[in-house]
Amino acid sequence: LPLLLLLLLLLSLLLLQTLLPLRVCGLMHLEKLYVCGNSLRTLPDSLSQLPGLRILALDFNKLEDVPMAVCQLTNLTRLYLGSNRLMTLPPELRNLQSLRCLWVESNYFHRFPRVLYDLPHLKSLQIGDNRLKTLPPDLWRMEALRGLWLYGNRFDTFPKVLLRMENLEILDLDRNKISEFPSLKRLHALRLFSYDHNPVKDPPNVGEEALIVGEGAAEFLEEREAKKERRRKAAEKESEEVQPEPEVCKDK
Ligand SMILES: *[C@@H]1O[C@H](CO)[C@@H](O)[C@H](O)[C@H]1NC(C)=O
Question: Cα dihedral angle (183, 187, 190, 195), rounded to 10 degrees?
């Protein structure tokens, strides 16, 4: 592993200093490449000669487009593109059929990139700190999605389509301008919901298993705990009353 790290460092330096062309012969099996914070505006096409890459991190650069070479790395499972200058994703991104996690936070997306519908295994999407005002009404088609980070966008109403995304486990709408939330009880898988820094009066209603983060959340959770406790006690009491040992079984 230290060898791999050394290799990564070396490659990073190489990219930083010479940029083009990247000499990557013999790196067929490289699985992770981190090239973050290098002010890159583009990447060499020879990047596509790293077909074994599973993790590629390109955050904190100056990319205005996703380089085509990236769209040829079909074994990628995680792709980090945060803090660049992206407004869209190219249609070729659908080549990345193994992709599980995509980070595109802190870019310039005005519209949700619908090419993501074609990535059937995408579980986690980080698109916080962009400029989204709405979500497409057929977003529910992303059935594999479990975590969705939408903090720091421009939503002023709760996107209704989210109520249909019953597989969501994490939903983060922190720092938007939403003043009213519907009940989220039908999102049965939801475990964490953040609505902090929105102009809301009351915390939204969520299922028994969900933690919430935001104004009034602590009180809400306390009250729910207390209710659960009361219910548990009542149930215990009831079972004590109805379960005296039947006499007939005792002498067996
Ligand atoms: C891509 O992933 C598949 C499945 O895990 C593996 O068999 C294949 O060798 C990988 N390709 C490269 C070039 O490493």
Answer: -30
